[in-house]
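Need a sequence for this fold. Nothing fancy.
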């Protein structure tokens, strides 16, 4: 596409240069572009090949994270509108044995009158120590998440979508004395401070306590030792599943979204009014309650990021829509998949709060 002399000139430019067609197939990249994104980036080919993308999907755009690829999205916008587009995008890149977070300014212009070719320019590629630390913190938080599938013989599924790099929700599932426990915490704030507080919950919730109420009280006591201001708080919904006795015990601390139990008669909204873990009511005594369940029931824990998820008109998703999805679901895994799709369609994929839910097949 380019003669040898022109390639040499473009390769000496400090700014990244790339040319792609209306199918997002990259026809050329210069050395500065490839150096910015990956030591494995190709000069031409599929977008994922020229970016050194780590997405496992064979076709670019079909991977689980492709919808969130800011680089690909600005290219798509230029192709769709057939005119110049500019944006500043952040993305993860792979260099040798490490992954870095970079921010790059990208400008795309139509390169021919047919609208089939586009010229892209990138400059200002930079990385900060804060960005590197954020990526490290993001990986650490991912390690706090449950593995999924089954615990104590109880199948379960969950979703966790942080609205920022670091989230403030914490789903957890564990086993104690042959019984399955589920905990869903939502901390105040967003970003780094919320991530630190969610790590505190992970470490501070006593998994050796059979009593959920006692575990919440102990967490509250530890929280007060942090001496945080009144703007900081934690909401928690916790359940204990006794599969042998077919009994469900539950407790909550200021959790806005009710616990949902789907059975043969419909959906039971389980609420347990209590203040969040905070410095507001330090002497509050948390309680737990008990409900029977039957084989085939589905138990769901949600954060208010689900119910308060808003669309472009400001309308909230609400508990009624969540229950409608649950009624149409065959089980825990099916519910989580359908809920994620429903929320994405409803909001257009723009989430202003962390989105988290756990579902159990009882």
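Here you go.
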């Amino acid at each position: 596409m380019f003669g040898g002399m022109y390639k040499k000139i473009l390769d000496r430019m400090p700014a990244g240069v790339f040319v792609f067609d209306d199918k997002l197939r990259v026809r050329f990249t210069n050395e500065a572009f490839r150096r910015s994104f990956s030591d494995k980036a190709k000069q031409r080919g599929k977008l994922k090949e020229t970016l050194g993308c780590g997405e496992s999907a064979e076709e670019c755009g079909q991977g689980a994270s492709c919808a969130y690829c800011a680089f690909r999205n600005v290219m798509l916008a230029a192709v769709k509108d057939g005119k110049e587009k500019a944006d500043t995008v952040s993305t993860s890149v792979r260099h040798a044995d490490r992954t870095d977070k970079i921010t790059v300014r990208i400008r795309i212009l139509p390169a021919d009158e047919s609208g089939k070719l586009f010229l892209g320019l990138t400059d200002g590629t930079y990385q900060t120590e804060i960005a590197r630390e954020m990526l490290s913190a993001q990986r650490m938080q991912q390690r706090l998440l449950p593995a999924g599938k089954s615990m104590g013989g109880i199948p379960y599924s969950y979703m966790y979508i942080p609205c920022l790099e670091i989230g403030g929700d914490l789903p957890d599932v564990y086993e104690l004395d042959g019984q399955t426990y589920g905990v869903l915490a939502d901390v105040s704030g967003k970003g780094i401070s919320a991530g630190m507080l969610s790590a505190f919950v992970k470490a501070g919730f006593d998994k050796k306590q059979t009593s959920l109420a006692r575990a919440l009280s102990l967490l509250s006591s530890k929280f007060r030792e942090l001496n945080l201001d009144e703007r900081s708080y934690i909401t928690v919904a916790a359940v204990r599943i006794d599969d042998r006795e077919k009994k469900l015990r539950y407790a909550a601390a200021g959790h806005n979204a009710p616990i949902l139990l789907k059975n043969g008669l419909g959906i039971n909204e389980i609420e347990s009014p209590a203040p969040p873990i905070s410095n507001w009511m330090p002497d509050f005594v948390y309680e737990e309650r008990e409900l029977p369940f039957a084989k085939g029931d589905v138990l769901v824990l949600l954060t208010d990021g689900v119910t308060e998820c808003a669309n472009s008109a400001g309308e909230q998703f609400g508990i009624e829509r969540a229950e409608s999805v649950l009624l149409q679901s065959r089980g825990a895994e099916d519910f989580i998949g359908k809920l994620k799709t429903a929320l994405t369609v409803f909001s257009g994929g723009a989430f202003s709060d962390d989105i988290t839910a756990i579902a159990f097949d009882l």
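For context: Residues 332-347 form the longest helix (16 residues).
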